[in-house]
Amino acid sequence: MASVQQRRIEIISRQITGSPTAGQGPLVQGRDCAAPSPRLLDGQVAIITGSGQGLGAAAAKLFAQQGARVLVTDLDGAKAEQVAEEIRRDGGEAAALAGDVTAEEFPARCVKAAVDSFGTIDILVNNAGFTWDGVIHKITPKQWDAMLAVHCTAPFRLIQAAAPVMREAAKRELDEGGVARSRCIINVSSTSGTHGNAGQANYSTAKAGVIGLTKTVAREWGGFNIRCNVVTYGYIATRLTSDKDSGASISVGGQQVKLGIPGGEAMAAAAAEMMIPLKRIGTPDEAAGAMLMLASPYAAFITGQSLEVTGGANI
Ligand SMILES: NC(=O)c1ccc[n+]([C@@H]2O[C@H](COP(=O)([O-])OP(=O)(O)OC[C@H]3O[C@@H](n4cnc5c(N)ncnc54)[C@H](O)[C@@H]3O)[C@@H](O)[C@H]2O)c1
Asked: Which CATH superfamily is domain 4-21+40-234+283-308 in?
């Protein structure tokens, strides 16, 4: 009789290579090339916060292309609905949910929406966020609290709210059959969190905090086959790195906070030339690719890791 360990490994290699049944060719070993390859996230359900635009929207579309059913959720409900609609138009499955990840009631509502729409949660991506920059001697208490709320407290509360669906389901599977399905959490951080950034004491602190959260979840939930990793992005071309004078803003407690960086794309291009070995900033699709890699069966033995996706900056 196969040991639990052996059964676990068999299940993971089936996920990577495709079912060993006739006509379903392996994806990695290169045998049976003519057979249809399974998609990387077939049958999985993903929540992606802040997926109305930017990195989150790119991830929602990519995950859906790879077979996931996606709950697209964003502060901006119209944008979330638009992304979900695009996914459905392209033949994928998606539902939209409007909401502020920092709201007291949001985590329970978000988990319920995913379960009501798709029955479970296999992948949770904590991506929603923004910047509210200031130099240390000028950062207000509200500015400080807003960053910790969106980048640390919200991911923690969502992970906690997902526990009955992710952790408890895995526990039941272990109790019943000895093997828990692969599930994962991906948090989104920044090189500001790993290296610091002048003008971003609040954001850097919060983005460092979510790395500690990631490693703790990885340790606590690893026994349930729930992996937790964090992606620390460098410059990616989104609203967050566009020109601060472009007019983009976000409302925080009734106050409009301007988004972007001074100088926008020109500034980013100059920084890229000097600091990024690949000599350019990244695209949302490239950022989403890193999330897909971590969510895929190819990352079945990767947990608790902080992956820098920067074009090589800071090496
Ligand atoms: N773009 C970059 O260069 C970069 C670099 C490092 C990290 N990040 C991180 O990536 C994540 C996504 O950023 P982006 O660049 O795609 O920005 P973006 O502004 O293009 O998209 C962020 C999305 O998050 C949503 N959002 C913000 N606050 C929210 C809240 N309280 N509740 C619900 N939704 C909320 C916004 O409405 C928006 O749709 C953020 O956590 C950001 O800090 C971005």
From this structure: NAD(P)-binding Rossmann-like Domain (3.40.50.720)
Tokens read off for 18: 């495709």
pLDDT per position as a tens digit, 248-292: 999 999 999 999 999 988 888 898 999 999 999 999 999 999 999
Question: Any idea where the domains of the chain sit in the sequence?
Answer: 4-21+40-234+283-308, 237-281
pLDDT in tens, 33-47: 344 568 999 999 999
Q: Of 309, 159, 150, nearest to 227 (Cα)?
A: 159
- Ligand 1 binding residues, C-beta < 6 A: 49-50, 52-56, 74-76, 79, 100-102, 127-130, 150, 188, 190, 233, 235-236, 238-241
Alpha-carbon distance of 112 to 264, in angstroms, equals: 38
Nearest alpha carbon, ligand 1 atom 18: 54
Q: What is the pLDDT of residues 193-248, one digit of tens each?
A: 999 999 999 999 999 999 999 999 999 999 999 999 999 999 999 999 999 999 89
Best of 47, 130, 230, 307 for a ligand 1 pocket test (most atoms within 8 Å of beta carbon): 130
- Spatial distance between the Cα atoms of 130 and 251, rounded to a whole number of angstroms: 11
